[in-house]
Amino acid sequence: MSKSEDAFTALRSDILDAVLPPDEPLVIASLRERYGYGWTPLREALPRLEAENLVVFQQNRGYRVAPVSAKSLRDLQAARLAVESALLQSSIEKGDGDWEGRIVAAHHLLAKAPSPAPGMKEEGVRHWEERHDAFHDALLGAGGSDWLMRFQRQTADQLHRHHRFMVHGPNSRGILDTVDRNAFEEVLQKTLGLDHHTMLMEAVLSRNVRLSLALLKEHIGFSLAVYETLWPENDAIDHTD
């Protein structure tokens, strides 16, 4: 890859993982020192990140990492439901035996990955995330719409950034000591545990569109419930100016 592509990839990865947190100023001189790239690769990377809504440009302030908020999280979850519902229904209608095999294989690998839990090392979390994403990609893989898949990936990236910031950002420090631990672990297990993924797989493989869409909606609702359990106030995760 070119240096410009390398710089773009490095910045994008750190923004998605909230290593570069929301509203972080992106000053070229500081980025050069941090990443070791020259002026040109970094200058070329920032507009590309802006085009993906990961970076914003403000007059007299320059580039900054795009903000996150509870409102945008809910908006993204609604967008995810709309896009993935359309892709899932289309996949059920069009998917062949190879598609079914990919779903079963992805579920098998997901079953072997321990679900994330408070205190799990980053390596373990990433391993589960990769297998979890692969399972959902397999479910949607026969949808037949390149545009919808692009929208799905963009939405997934933005949700990943929101989730990472809420779990690892400064607003999350000590939060687990202030919430109902049993309630949190219950909703976390529903979201990340294998049981609901298995139910979703079985409904999809049986070609039951209505049940599959209902389970997908429930699954996405679980994800939002995790963060509403941690941040019950609507504006508690806002990180905007």
From TrEMBL:
Per UniProt, the keywords (alphabetical) are: DNA-binding, Transcription, Transcription regulation
Instruction: List the InterPro entries hit by this protein, alphabetically.
Output: GntR_C, TF_FadR/GntR_C, Tscrpt_reg_HTH_GntR, WH-like_DNA-bd_sf, WH_DNA-bd_sf
Q: Name one GO molecular function term.
A: DNA-binding transcription factor activity
Name the Gene3D superfamilies for this protein: GntR ligand-binding domain-like (1.20.120.530), Winged helix-like DNA-binding domain superfamily/Winged helix DNA-binding domain (1.10.10.10)
Every copy of the HTH gntR-type domain together lies at 1-68
Respond yes or no to whether keyword Membrane is given for this record: no
Q: Which domain of life is it from?
A: Bacteria
Report the protein name in the record: GntR family transcriptional regulator
According to its UniProt entry, this protein's organism is: Stappia sediminis
